Structures are given as C-alpha cells and as structure tokens.
Amino acid sequence: MKCIDCKEEYEEQPIYRCEKCNGLLEIEFKLSADDFDIKKARKRRFNLWRYKELIPAKKIVSLNEGGTPLYECKNLSEELKVKLFVKNEGANPTGSFKDRGMTVGVSKAIEFGKNITTCASTGNTSASLAAYSARGNLKCIVMIPSGKIAYGKLAQALIFGAKVIAIDGNFDKALETVFKISKNENIYLLNSINPYRLEGQKTIAYEIFDELNHTPDRIILPVGNAGNISAIWKGFKEFYELGIIDKKPKMTGIQADGAKPIVNMFKNKKEYVPEKNPETIATAIRIGNPVSWKKAINAIYESDGYAESVTDEEILNAQRLLARKEGIFVEPASAASIAGLIKLINEGIIDKNEEIVCITTGNGLKDPNVVADLYKNEIIYVKEEDVENLIKNM
Predict the structure, then answer these.
(1) Residue 50 confidence (pLDDT)
(2) What is the C-alpha separation between 53 and 41, in angstroms, rounded?
(3) C or N terminus of the chain, fewer CB within 10 Å?
(4) Cβ-Cβ contacts under 8 Å for 294 (sequence gap 6 or more)
(5) In sequence order, what are the residues at sequence separation of 6 or more whose Cβ sits closer than 8 angstroms to the Cβ of residue 34?
(6) How many of the other CB atoms lie within 10 Å of CB of 373?
C-alpha cells in the first residue's frame, strides 16, 4: 500500500488513508513478465478471477462477476462516424460494475477478520455490498441519502439483508457518517476510498484488451465518486508494464452538469472545489465531493485524456439512443458516457476515426421509474376490435 501524495508505504492492513499525510492509498505491484501469463489466463473461465495473480485477495467471495460483454455498436458507429464499443457492466451479478470491487473488498474484509461491512451509497454500491456481504456471511450497514435512491437499487439492498439507514442529507453527508462508524475495529469501509476495491474494478481494462486483443484509442465512462476511472487506468498501466500491451488509452470522464467538480477543475485549471448541492437525474453520479477526485484527475492528465459534463436532457437522449439503436438498456448515469461521446465529437475533441470503448456502469432496470414516466405516453390504448387496423397502419 502506497500513498499517492507522500509515497509512504504500508504493509497490507485495513486502513483507508495515509496515516502520515491523509492522502489516498493505492495498491502497488512489483510486476514482471514472470508474474502473469496472459496465454495461460485465457484458458480459464472468462470472469474477474481469470486475472487472479494480479488481484490481492486470497479468501475469495465471488458471485462470478466480470466477463461482461463488449458490444460492437455498428449502428451508432455508422451514425457517429467512430468505431464504438460498449462494455456493459450492467451484466454483472447485481447489475453494476460495483460487483468487481466488492468481490475483492469483501474478500479482504474476511481476511482482516472484520464482522461488519459498511458504505455510503446512491444505490449501486449498497446493492453490491449487501449481496457480497450476504455471500460472505457478514453483516452489512449501508447509509443512503434520504429520498435520493432509485427503488431498484434500494430493493436489492433490502432483500440481501443489509441494515439500510437513510441520512437526512446528500451522499456526501452519508459518506461522512460511514467514515465515523468505520473507526470501529469490527467494521470495514467499502466505498471507493478503499484501495482494495479498485483492484477489482481495474479488471475492466484487462477484459477490454482480452476481448479486442488490442488497446482502444479512448475509454469514456461516467464519473461519480471517481474511483472507476483511476482503477481502469491502473489496469491498463499494469498490462503495459507487463509488456502485454504497447499503448495506453486516453481516459475520458463524464460528469453531470449538476455535479461536476472534476470537470470544473480540469477545464478551469484551478484548485478542486466540491459541489455543495449536487443535482441530476442520474442518481448514481449525483455526488458533489468525489472521494477519489485526485486519483481521477491524475488518470485524466497522465493519459492525455479529457473531462466533460452533460445535461440531464443529453443523458436521457443518449439512454434512448443506445436502447433504440443497439438494444442496450442502461440506467441514466451509464448513458452519460454515450452523451459525453456525442458532445465531444460535436466539439471536435474526438476524431472521427477513433476507436472508443464507452463503459456503461449499470443496468437500466436499476432506475426504471425515469423511463416509465418519460415514455408512458407512447403506450397505445385501443379496443380489441381496433388492433388489426392499428397494425395495418404502422
């Protein structure tokens, strides 16, 4: 474990920040070509644990996460004049990319002798942590912002047996609360500030290479608490260090207009300033003070990437476009990556000939109310005897 600021190093232990400077921690591997054989790994089942030599966990708690599909989007590629792929993380066991982090995080909780797991969540994190805690026979406490969580995600946390506590305030307030309770030696915090969680999420990069057999020009993904973009960048860097890939992609993070502190920092070239009152229809990225912002901005700068924000209208249009052009239904936050792609093409940031992978982070059934309300007027109500005439006129 190494601090990204002061470079202080620690042996494996259940801490979340540097005890010297309070900086974020990262798991650092001393890698060599002898440590991991990609040819041997490809003979294993295609899931996250195909890459077990590069994942620091032993007592594995798994629901067969990873191995998510990478779709070649031919219809959208033709329309947008780029070569587009979508890595659909909504195909994970609980319907989001969070499962990658939780399989490692809950495994570490057991290794460290913890009895209880906890997190603050806008939805997907709580659903995933509750499922993996149940699988690992651990108790689970999740803090959610009162009235600010999609029912699809809340239902998952409840059915998996988590103790759900609604905080009067936004996600950032909920996170403050779990930081306090995680000081209890029996409780293990599993928000993205936990460096072991990102060790699971970095496998998205491994899989993209495995599925394409080369590195794309650019990765575009939504940014909420900001752990995923740095995790995927870390995965590509590790494959580069191992000599498996010969180039790294540009990392491009997309935030919502109502919650865009990282975009503001990137575009204005100023200090990081949290968004006090984040607001967006994309509940999964409605986060005004991302705990991993420094890792995220580092990934963007190191990769010569970009950060952009999109409106709720652009998000919803992109959600519909992906569904109706490619048959892929994602939650609004996931559609931010597609909305960002379209905006960056129109702004000339993305070249027409680029090969791009957009990460869609959660299944559309996670947040169905938005869609049901938006498109309810498209339902056609007719009498039985009028059905045939209606079909003839379609």
Answers:
(1) 97
(2) 9
(3) C
(4) 4, 5, 23, 24, 272
(5) none
(6) 9
Helix (H) or strand (E) segment spanning residue 85 = strand 83-88
What are the strands of the beta sheet with 250-256, ordered from one edge? Answer: 70-72, 83-88, 355-360, 218-222, 250-256, 306-310
Q: Running along the chain, 394 residues long, what does each successive block of 10 average in pLDDT?
A: 96 94 93 87 96 94 98 97 97 98 98 96 92 98 84 92 91 88 92 95 98 98 95 97 96 97 95 94 92 96 98 98 98 97 97 95 91 89 86 79
Q: What is the rounded CA–CA span in Å between residue 352 and residue 126?
A: 38
- Residue spans in the chain of domains classed CATH 3.40.50.1100: 70-95+197-374, 98-193
Phi, psi of 342 (to 5 degrees): -60, -45
Global model pTM greater than 0.85? yes
Which CATH architecture group holds 98-193? Answer: 3-Layer(aba) Sandwich (3.40)
CATH architecture of the domain formed by 70-95+197-374 = 3-Layer(aba) Sandwich (3.40)
Token pair in block for residue 134: 């149940």
Residue pair 60/45 in contact by the 8 Å Cβ criterion:
no
Indicate the Cα dihedral angle 270, 8, 101, 160, nearest 10°.
-100
* pLDDT reported for residue 29: 84
Calpha distance 271→58 (Å, rounded):
39
pLDDT at 184: 87
